[in-house]
Specification:
Blueprint (H helix, E strand, L loop, with lengths): L17 H27 L9 H13 L6 H14 L12 H13 L3 H8 L3 H4 L4 H8 L1 H9 L5 H4 L3 H15 L2 H15 L6 H21 L3 H15 L1 H14 L7 H15 L5 E6 L2 H11 L8 E7 L2 H14 L1 E2 L5 E2 L12 E6 L5 E8 H9 L36 H10 L5 H13 L4 E5 L4 E4 L5 H9 L6 E6 L2 E3 L10 E6 L11 H4 L3 H13 L1 H4 L14 E2 L4 E5 L9 E3 L11 E5 L5 E5 L3 H8 L4 E2 L1 E3 L5 E10 L4 H11 L3 E7 L6 E10 L5 H9 L4 E6 L4
Parallel strand pairs: 2-6, 7-11, 14-16
Antiparallel strand pairs: 1-2, 3-5, 4-5, 5-6, 7-8, 9-10, 9-11, 12-13, 13-18, 15-16, 15-17, 19-21, 19-22, 20-21
Family: Belongs to the RelA/SpoT family.
GO molecular function: kinase activity
Keywords: Kinase, Transferase
Amino acid sequence: MSAEATNPVSAAEAAVTDTGVRRRGRARLELRRIGRAALLGATAGPAPRDRLPDAISHVAEAHRAHHPEADLSVLRRAYVLAESSHRGQFRKSGEPYITHPLAVTLILAELGAETVTLTASLLHDTVEDTEVTLDQVRREFGDEVAYLVDGVTKVEKIDYGAAAEPETFRKMLVATGDDVRVMSIKLADRLHNMRTLGVMRPEKQARIAKVTRDVLIPLAERLGVQALKTELEDLVFAILHPEEYETTRALIAEATGSGSPDALAAVAEHVGTVLREADIAAEVLVRPRHFVSVHRVRLKRGELRGCDFGRLLVLVAEDADCYAVLGELHTCFTPLISEFKDFIAAPKFNLYQSLHTAIAAPDGAVVEVLIRTHRMHKVAEAGVVALGSPHGTAPDQAEPAEGPDPAEDGERTDPTRPGWLARLLDWQESAPDPDTFWSSLRADLAEDHEITVFRADAGTLGLPAGSTCVDAAYAQHGEAAHACLGARVNGRLAPLSTVLADGDTVQLLLAQDSHSGPSPQWLDHARTPAARIAITAWLQAHPEAAAQPAAAPRAPLSVAADRSSGAELHADLDGAPPAPVRPAGCCTPVPPDTITGFRVRGGSVTAHRTGCPAVDVMHRLGRAVVPVRWGDAAHCRVTLVAESFGRPGLLADLTEAIATAGAEVVSATVEPPNEQRVRHTYTLQLTDAAELPNLMRAMRDVPGVYDVGRTHRL
């Protein structure tokens, strides 16, 4: 997983708050200790069987802090196998390779992971990078450990080529569906690799950081592992936005300098006094914001004040104490009611529970306050890592964290397999193409899964914000939703394009005719990958439904060339008079597409891509086929439409991707955003038409872009 990871002290490593600096400092010391111990272990022979090797003692210490009765012998055996199998391998920083699995295991141990997870973490690169086989892991450590190791093992690039990365993530997600600990190990693995990214080439740092931003950070958020998510955000921030990062770093340094008054500490002391006088046992802490959080607050509020660089965290014993603290704060301070959120009564989809409020400090500054129990805090930091094994409580595992009764919420019937993950696993099965899966995954993770829609026939649907009745139909009925005719929203008839709000009740109306199907316009209303993939597949299987009327003939061009596309076309008319030949506007073929020609009004010939729905229409109308072929010229002009979710910098990123792919922008238009979606239309000149698939793939890889296709030229 990490053969390309590098120097443990990188520029990005500075991207942390005071708390993070202390944690990272400890991590650096541990890395040095790991490196020394690993080197000694490689030269001095194995440790006696009755004690742990020095290199793993820090992992054992962190593990015992959460699981005092844990059996450490299995960790010793796992370390011995990992160290011996990785012996002689080194990271690009020059450190023994074993330092990486040890560091990943330490991250998970500090979060409270149970013994099986730590065992698999120590071994997570052995099957991929050494002679150790999966069967050997299974024989020595059992099926659970083998499953986790296999889940995080990359697919072979020699077998999948450019599709290796998306297919690796697909494999991991499928494995996560059965055991969420797979993704826990992957997140810790990526965190250590991001910490040690410094000696990689800048372009490779940027590529890894973008995948981390688009895929790993959203997964960490959805799995509730805030401790990993926040540090990953800061490391990505430092690599992809160095100027904004440096500005934020300077602001934090100025606000936390030795000569600066600590405004939050004064408020924390006041709050502590209020709670003691009310006889409420509570721990009041100042929780510094991480770099990205400070940056977001600065964008939201403009000039920052002392209290904007952190929040107060109040920890209590019981749920009832949380509300008691809230009552005292709202009584003794001026509350900002608009900032109050109750995530205890209504937990987030990632198991997060807390009360959020904000109060006015004596100087008028706004102070944000988080109120939660100690167990809630553990789950907020460690998320699913704190839940342990989905197969039952291990003997050394702590009691499960408190939370709502799973039976009361269909989205959390199994907290280790949340509803969003189940939906993701469902639609990925319908996306066999790696590019479609990769772009759909990024689009799905870019959405904020926050709304719950009530079904009229009982039950609930969890959907991304901005979802429509089309999305609800496919979420509830799968492919049967092809027959959907309309919907009732809150008891009233509504079009399928209706955007649903949190708490809406929806009833989908299905036709009894099995021949009914979606129209192309449904794609304009679909937000979820599940709906878009299902609709697209149906339209491809039923081209007559997607066929558009033939484009009106344009003025004659040249006898055998289309100047608007730049690609030569020839038609075999059997000694008949020459006629203009042009690409069809409905499918805009370019070399080396396989093409079929038909005569149209005015005597000209249009060339369609084979498979274009209009070709079937022409055949049914009895139109004679005219053989057409490409000439020698390989260059072409093509019009592409990029569908995306709106975000700052999107146009610049798309233009950069087009330029990097070697295409020239002839013209570009950007339609006004519609419900956070943006449509970009580009007319592009390519020197080599064979590069069109690579160009479209590069555009789809831009974060936020979920679809790129050809369209009618203007």
